[in-house]
Amino acid sequence: MTRRRRSGPPNAAREQLFATIHAGQPRWRAAIVQDAVVTLRYRGEGEQFGSRLAALGQMIRLAWVSDAFFAQVLYRGKARMQALGVPLLPLIAHRLAVVLAQVSIGDPVVIEPGLYIVHGQVVIDGIVSIGAGAVLAPFVTIGLRAGDFHGPTLERDVQVGTGAKLLGPIRVGAGARIGANAVVLDDVPAGATVAGAPARRV
């Protein structure tokens, strides 16, 4: 006797949620160009492209010399393919990012164009939103608390230090700074600097 799979409202609601998230993903090309601009700025290598060919050359070079930027390219590709309903390839892109750069960015994560990941060893998962201009140092975790699928919202220009953990449905205001190894469990006001475990304003 075969059992019928249940397809009640929870599954339908989840599918609708993911459809909305995928639809909100930025376009691949625009996102990668902005990611490259921000990455070049923080690496002290300028941020202007003389032509489309120059921009392509810089993005290829960054993907070659920076495991984190290559992972961003893969994440952007995964997100765009999921939005288009492409099967299998998003999973391959995700696994490559994990294996080659130790960067794991979950399916419900939406990152605005213009992210700089300094190095690998970064995990982001849950319903997470990250604004443009964010900087993530190595060994950062942005994710969930047990029993809640909603993760943090980072507004524009947030900087997260090495080893920091941001957990649960919190909001980090624009321009905030998160200290190295901080554990952030509460909202952070715009422009504030927090440090410690649990994190406190300094």
Q: Would you write up a description of this structure?
A:
With 202 residues, the chain is an alpha/beta fold. The chain folds into two domains: 9-100, no CATH class; 121-202, Hexapeptide repeat proteins (UDP N-Acetylglucosamine Acyltransferase, domain 1), CATH 2.160.10.10. The chain is 37% helix and 20% strand. The strands form three sheets. A six-stranded mixed sheet has the order 3-6-9-12-14-15. It is globular.
Overall helicity: 25-40%
The whole-angstrom Rg is 18 Å
Low-confidence stretches: 1-9
Number of strands: 15
Strand order of the largest sheet: 3-6-9-12-14-15
Number of helices: 5
Q: Biggest β-sheet, characterized?
A: 6 strands, mixed
Gap from first CA to last CA? 63 Å
**How many domains, as an integer?**
2
Mean pLDDT: 90
What is the overall shape? globular
Strand fraction: 15-25%
What is the element string, with H for helices and E for strands?
HHHHHEEEEEEEEEEEEEEE
Structural class: alpha/beta
Gist of the model:
This protein has 202 residues and is α/β, with parallel strands linked by helices. The chain has 2 domains: 9-100, no CATH class; 121-202, UDP N-Acetylglucosamine Acyltransferase, domain 1 (3 Solenoid). It has helices spanning 9-23, 28-42, 52-65, 67-84, 89-101; strands at residues 103-105, 110-111, 116-117, 122-124, 127-130, 135-136, 141-143, 150-154, 159-160, 165-167, 171-172, 177-178, 183-184, 193-195, 200-201.
